[in-house]
Design goal:
The chain is 37% helix and 18% strand. The protein is an alpha/beta fold. The longest helix is centred in the last third of the chain and has 16 residues. Bound molecules: S-adenosylmethionine.
């Protein structure tokens, strides 16, 4: 295993601080510093930016980010048992690691990072990972406060983020992510790499903001994709009925076939639908 710093091995840290993993907090710790370093490297150049990490746990990825030269890491951790271990890392890298105890879903990341160039890197807790990603890719301002996301998810979630039309995994997440971001899965990580091992394979996803996504109202796109994929087996003229009394006309005006199903429509098609829907509402 790579030696990336003079801090104790993560297994010793976990034993010393009694960090037995809690399922309720999605705790599957990554102890292989080769892998945490690979994730840190995948985040891009870190010297000139603040890295926001969610769920540092005992600090494996945190250490890799700091060893890779991150100017500053701000880490949000819900489990107070991890704080003493993280304080040791902070002491080892004076002035470069700030740990915030709390729930990442309730903390405003923009206020926290204060206008710095931000990269987000995390081995996300499975129970809140998708919601955090949605929060980050649906910020009202675009380009967003972050310049990249390097995130570990269950592989199935990674596939839903990067899915193409026509595939089983294609849905709201792929449309939102594909509309506003570029990137996808970088590599998989076997359950064996974690302590305790999860039931499924994980995947590291890297996304960067599209500088100029197709012009579209976010709220309209969210409504259209929710309705269309909420009943994905139905034709659009039926699945969009909850949004428009004349769903057939809406779909036709958007230049699409009313008999098409959500999974056949590409991102540009959804943008056309959302813009047509928005225009009809404005009348
Ligand atoms: N980064 C560590 C690693 O790679 O070994 C731990 C990753 S573990 C999959 C997820 C971490 O997120 C745990 O430390 C857990 O306590 C923390 N966590 C869970 N829910 C959280 C939340 N809502 N906000 C912040 N941290 C959370």
């Amino acid at each position: 295993m790579a030696q990336i710093d003079d801090l104790p091995p993560l297994r010793d840290v976990i034993a010393e601080h009694g960090l037995n993993a809690k399922k309720s907090l999605g705790q599957n710790f990554l102890l292989d510093l080769n892998l945490t370093s690979r994730i840190a490297r995948s985040a891009g150049s870190l010297e000139d930016c603040t890295v926001l990490e969610v769920g540092p746990g005992p600090g494996g990825l945190t250490r890799a980010l700091l060893a890779a030269g991150a100017k500053r890491v701000i880490a949000i951790e819900k489990d107070s048992r991890c704080l003493p271990a993280l304080a040791e890392i902070s002491a080892h890298y004076p002035g470069r690691l700030e740990v915030i105890e709390g729930d990442a879903l309730e903390i405003d990341p923009v206020a926290l990072t204060g206008g710095d160039k931000v990269r987000i890197a995390a081995n996300l807790p499975y129970n809140v990972g998708t919601q955090l990603l949605i929060n980050w890719i649906t910020t009202p301002d675009w380009p967003p406060f972050w310049s990249s996301l390097t995130l570990m998810f269950q592989k199935e979630v990674g596939e839903r983020i990067s899915a193409s039309p026509g595939s089983k995994a294609y849905g709201r997440l792929a449309v939102l992510a594909g509309w506003r971001c570029k990137g996808g899965i970088l590599f998989d990580i076997s359950p064996k790499a974690f302590t305790p091992p999860p039931k499924v394979t994980s995947a590291v996803v890297h996304l960067e903001p599209n500088a100029s996504p197709l012009p579209c109202d976010l709220k309209a796109l969210e409504k259209i994709t929710a309705a269309a994929f909420g009943q994905r087996r139905k034709m659009l003229r039926a699945s969009l009925k909850s949004l428009s009394a004349d769903a057939e006309e809406l779909v036709t005006k958007a230049g699409l076939k009313p008999t098409a199903r959500a999974e056949e429509i590409d991102i540009a098609g959804f943008v056309d639908l959302a813009n047509t829907f928005r225009a009809a509402q404005a009348v």
